[in-house]
Design goal:
Length: 91
């Protein structure tokens, strides 16, 4: 499988956390969900992982107001991930 089971956060979560931080994101927990957000000087979208619904949300903000929110479920994510493998972008 391409995703980590809900209760198996261990080192896999820490790897992702470090990758997000290298991109300029900060980590916090909001309503029992993992949230990565860009600081105000870097124009990055917020990304929130819902542990309850097995989805993640990509939010585009402007002046702290949501312009657009896109929710991605596991099946769509796996299709996107598989396409990137087939294109040779990732292994």
């Amino acid at each position: 499988m391409l995703w980590v089971a809900k209760k198996d956060y261990g080192r896999d979560r820490m790897k992702a956390k470090n990758m997000f931080e290298e991109l300029g994101y900060k980590f916090k927990i909001v309503n029992n969900n993992f949230c990565y957000y860009g600081d105000d000087t870097i124009n990055l979208p917020d990304i929130e992982f819902s542990l309850k619904y097995d989805t993640y949300t990509y939010e585009i903000l402007s002046n702290h107001e949501r312009i657009q929110q896109i929710e991605i479920n596991i099946k769509l994510h796996q299709a996107i991930h598989q396409q990137m493998i087939e294109l040779g972008w990732i292994e």
